[in-house]
Amino acid sequence: MWHPYGGFPASTEPLPVVSARGTRLQLADGRELVDGMSSWWAAIHGYRHPHLDAAAHRQIDTMSHVMFGGLTHEPAVELAARLARLAPGALNKVFLADSGSVSVEVAAKMAIQFQRSLGRPERTRLATWRGGYHGDTLAPMSVCDPQGGMHAMWRGVVAEQVFAPAPPAHYDAAYVAELERVIREHADELAGIIVEPVVQGAGGMRFHHPDHLRDLRRLADETGALLIFDEIATGFGRTGELWAADHAGVAPDVMCVGKALTGGYLTLAATLTTDRVAEVISAGEAGGLAHGPTFMGNPLACAVACASLDLVEAGEWREQVARIEAGLRRGLAPARELPGVVDVRVLGAIGVVQLDRPVEMTTTTSAITSHGVWLRPFRDLVYTMPPLISTDEEIDLICAAAVAGAAAAGAGR
Q1: From the annotation, which residues make up the binding site for substrate?
Q2: Fold exhibited by the domain 318-411
Q3: Among this protein's residues, is 259 annotated catalytic?
Q4: Binding residue ranges
């Protein structure tokens, strides 16, 4: 079995899970772990949620899948309508995809086809800032950080994109000037500008000032590039707003969503765009968007996604995220005093402890699981993105485990 980002033999032994409920993972050896990762940030409502379970059962008794080419069905129609209603701005056109990475591929195609349809075929590149992560397929890899990211080995294979420096945590006029210089210098070749708004996820779990999104909106308007927000990790309340873009009051031309879209039950993503972008692409040489995943609009996934949106629209996540944020700030604060810790940061239901060197996975993970918690450190980070249903006691336990993991990672320096 080949596990993600690993080789043979595996550097760490994977833990067999036999069941999951609420926030808890039951292991084959009888141990129970609180999942502080929401299964890579997707299971925001926890496991075996009765409302999502019921939706899955109802749909599988009707049809689990039907092709979306030439056919349609109510779960997809309902999901698209609800996403369009919830999205910022006027993102009224919804293209359903298989995964977050594919939704970014679709966004890149949208931007390039949009420019071609306007008679600007030379505009094929994407601009972004360093420190980002957008997925593991070729177009998303091309806009991941080209030096510090996990995709540096693909330089010369993926398309060469345009990179500005990584965005600072605080608003900085000098940074804005440099960002503007980079984008204007390449304006004539840019199809779009793509970023993760407010939170850069797997590129390093960094936070930046929301006002930088307003600068990007202005620059996109002035240069004719499409503004693309990758909300795959940040959407559905994770940062304390429904969309990270809401922190800035900015709407993009294209938005990618995934991960928590189905509450972690099934793989599904979507790329949303405006009427104008859809109309321009449809009037172009291809006559439409040149993409069509086999499992696009999968009825089972769409039905569960609609059930997940029921919970999101009920609005309890606002209180949950605010409470989790307070717990993470309180519980992770002791890590600031540990050897090797260079930063502790919290935003919404995201808590990060950063060290001065990469963690040793076996020792660090063992320290974390000994506290009855599951976290998956990477690079120089011990971090958590817990399910939004986590109790105060579970957040305290997650924080204690994260601090213990950071202590183990920093031991012997």
Answers
A1: 40, 133, 259, 292, 376
A2: Aspartate Aminotransferase, domain 1 (3.90.1150)
A3: yes
A4: 40, 100-101, 133, 230, 259, 292-294, 376
User: Would you call 93 a catalytic residue per the annotation?
Assistant: no
**C-alpha–C-alpha distance, residues 335 and 355, integer Å:** 10
173 burial (CB, 10 Å; 0-12 / 13-18 / 19+) is exposed
Tokens of residue 131, six digits:
């420190």
Active site residue 109: no
Active site includes 230? Answer: yes
Q: Which CATH number fits domain 52-314: 3.40.640.10, 2.60.40.1470, 2.30.30.30, 3.40.50.300?
A: 3.40.640.10
DSSP code, position 166? P
Q: Where are the domains of the chain?
A: 52-314, 318-411
Q: Which residue has the tokens 């240069």?
A: 223
Of 259, 265, 380, 383, the catalytic one is: 259
Return per-residue pLDDT of the chain as tens, 413 residues. 888 888 888 778 899 999 999 999 999 999 999 999 999 999 999 999 999 999 999 999 999 999 999 999 999 999 999 999 999 999 999 999 999 999 999 999 999 999 999 999 999 999 999 999 999 999 999 999 888 666 778 888 999 999 999 999 999 999 999 999 999 999 999 999 999 999 999 999 999 999 999 999 999 999 999 999 999 999 999 999 999 999 999 999 999 999 999 999 999 999 999 999 999 999 999 899 999 999 999 999 999 999 999 999 999 999 999 999 999 999 999 999 999 999 999 999 999 999 999 999 999 999 999 999 999 999 999 999 999 999 999 999 999 999 999 999 987 55
